[in-house]
Design brief:
Layout (H helix, E strand, L loop, with lengths): L1 H16 L1 H5 L7 H29 L1 H20 L4 H29 L5 H27 L5 H21 L12 H24 L4 H23 L13 H31 L4 H7 L1 H10 L3 H8 L1 H19 L8 H28 L6 H34 L2 H7 L4 H7 L5 H42 L1
Helix pairs in contact: 1-5, 1-6, 1-7, 3-4, 3-5, 3-8, 3-16, 4-5, 4-7, 6-11, 6-12, 8-9, 8-16, 10-11, 10-14, 10-15, 10-16, 10-19, 12-15, 13-14, 14-15, 14-19, 16-19
Length: 475
Amino acid sequence: MCACVVLVVGMVAAINLAVPMLAASDLHPSASALIWIVDTYVIFFACLVIPGGAAGDRFGRKGVLLAGLALFGVGVLLSAVAPNVPFLLVGRAITGVGAAAVLPNTLAVLLHAVPAERKGATIAAWASMTGIGGIIGNVGGGAVLSGGSWRWLFLAAIPISLVLAVFVGWIAPVSPRHDRRLDVPGAVLLVGASVALLLGIVEGPEAGWTSPIVLIGFAGSAVLFVVWTIVELKTEHPLLDPRLFRVPALRSASLGMTAIFFGMFALFYVNASFLQYGKGFSVLGTGLGIIPMTLPIIFGARHVGRLTRRIGLDATIALAFVFVGAGLLGLSTNDSQTPYLVYAAWLVVTGIGVALALPTLSGAISGALPPAQAGVGAGLQATTREFGSALGVAVIGTILTGRFVAALPPDIRANQDPHTVAQALAVTTPGRAPEVIDAFVASTSTALLVMGVSVLVLGALVVLQSRLSRTRGNQ
């Protein structure tokens, strides 16, 4: 079960390493297409993880888990052989649907399989796999991509998903089914609203912020979110009951989780290209280069509970956002000449913030709901994490594209109108490559600066909401 979690979470991280290869590939993706290649998997994963758990309850957790692994395998196969960008996006969407069926049912199968006295340790082990999955995705993805083609990343996932399906079929017990209805309209509306929102954000730099596709994306997202809320309020078994967010503590913790992953995956998206283009790292070196950020998460998470008891929940959350925001701001000061050790130090600062945030916010979400809704809390955590990841990639990718085009030398911009580093390098002479790289590094600094400030502002809102909820609770 833990290996299944590592597979689906690792794919979220690994694809960022392939962005420079994809940009220079025979698919010739635009800057917005690169963001969609990363985000399509994540947004389907985010929006369908709660329905994936509900489907397991209704049709059998082992069966849905096996179906999810099969869909994951089909999706990565289609991605590996994709002849064009639309075909690749279909493969990524199918892979995301499969991941959404896998993640919640791994925990459900585990909790059914182990005795009551081991459930606490089992949940802790399962939860730690989300962090380990990110590390393995970066390191393993870097090793696979060292073969020279982005297609190898997807091809490598095929046998892994097949082997895991065999082991699940052999080992996992069959658990009882529950007559839980599936909220198909709610799931469709949530996916549609999320995709429309990303459409508006991602297409802005290339299509223009007042272009029909961008305006339709933002307007469609607003309408679909309103319709989704109305449908969820009226249905007997909602996908995610909007009334839950009347609880201030749940509202602030959910926003906090979204904001942390917003900043973290924005960094993952930029880091892969910055280390390869700006620092000249190999793809494997880039995968290893993010490890300093993960060290505090691995070794420090178990001490967070003790700190929270000493200084309080609000202070711990505030400290988490200060570290993440400061780390992103520190990273924004790096350029091609900055020693990697300085870059790594700022990664550690960011990692300390993430290590403080994840267990604290997870506990706050769980604690805001009664025990009978523990499954809802777990689904909400997964949804906020993945939605924040998708939003972070979309926003920083959009800022990166806009600033990169503006920073290019005027003649390159006027004559060729490139929107990615690969496009710019392809249309300029080798002697002008440093100018293109300098433009990209400058745009990276701006993007990280904006993300750092955004995380600090969101963190202030989270802490303010949390304090207000406690004040009202005490009254």
